[in-house]
Amino acid sequence: MEKRIALIEGDGIGPEILAEAVKVLRCIEERYGHHFTYVPVCAGGCAIDRYGTSLPKESLEACLDSDSVLLAAVGGPKWDGVDPSIRPEKALLAIRKELGLYANLRPARIFSQLKHASPLKESIVEKGIDFMVVRELIGGVYFGEKKTETVEGELRASDQMAYSEHEIRRIAHTAFQTARKRNGRVISVDKANVLDTSRLWRKVVHEVAQEYPDVSCTDMLVDNAAMQIVKDPSQFDVLVTENMFGDILSDEASMITGSIGLIPSASLGESRRGMYEPIHGSAPDIAGKNIANPIGMILSAGLMLKYAFDLDEEQKRIEDAVEQVLSDGYRCADIMEEGKTQLSCSEMGDQIVKTIRTMS
Ligand code: NAI
Ligand code: MG
């Protein structure tokens, strides 16, 4: 198979972790006879330094010309003072919008080897943590009209939250289809007791649910969902929600699995071309030290193989190799514990590659 992959290394630990994901992809190419072309794309803080904008036109075009986008992380304190219109995160929002990536999928799953890393009580972890957060990604308050004005002598700011039926319908379909491939249960999270957007959300989700009689659909208010995720995460299979609720709940869901360095994500749209990235940021506090955990980045490359290229077996092999490396007692600094072997970022990449090569 021949594919073009846009690579955005971005800032902070971005270049370090992305290099490890590319090592793993090259190993997969070799083993399965694929040919991937890697197209480096400059975006984020580094693009502000070089071009004065976080997403130069050429960078966006390179993403649109590729079969898939693999992103590490962008941003850092160095760019905190820049004009909000060119901030590093703007590049991500623009790519999501331009590529029409309306669905963000984030697995919240605990590796059996790392159960002790969860901040939750053992009795809760034992019941199992394995669900998928499906977050709407290009609507809602993050994309609504923003205004800061002076009203009666003081500043007043507003951000509009809006959703159209079609925006809700397509993400609901993503959720039900995802549940079909999992355990057939959708919990839709909203704030329908207060918000009009949520009342519309609920109505449309229920309509879509009719098309999936084999999948169960339950509503949950967002404040309750925040509690239930820590009280009994085993009740969730697929959790679908709007953009801002999903941003917050998916971070909460990732934290209960232990380390932020382990979790991948996929952002998908109508076309096969999606964007794949670990959920963490650019971790400026550990950048340049070769100690970041590349596993979330490597698993993101795996999700890309599965969702963008239909290479399910290759994705499974990457996931199995990661599990094997953890079972063999290898850890990065963020998940290090007594009696285990600590690896640097590049050593972890090497160990995963070695395991992929030797696995039968
Ligand atoms: P962060 O996720 O970068 O870091 C939070 C903590 O987790 C830090 O202590 C960091 O060292 C640690 N950490 C993160 N990834 C790790 C990894 N792979 N291995 C080991 N430890 C890891 O979040 P923070 O500090 O709030 O943000 C830093 C910068 O990243 C900010 O400029 C922020 O805007 C940006 N950011 C970018 C995102 C993206 O590109 N998608 C997402 C979130 C934040
Ligand atoms: Mg976030």
Automatic annotation (TrEMBL):
Give the family from UniProt.
Belongs to the isocitrate and isopropylmalate dehydrogenases family. LeuB type 1 subfamily.
- Keyword hit for Iron-sulfur: no
Q: Pinpoint the site Important for catalysis.
A: Y142, K191
Its needed co-factors are: Mg(2+); Mn(2+)
Protein name, UniProt field: 3-isopropylmalate dehydrogenase
Annotated GO molecular function terms are:
3-isopropylmalate dehydrogenase activity
Superkingdom, natural source: Bacteria
Where does this protein hold Mg(2+)?
D223, D247, D251
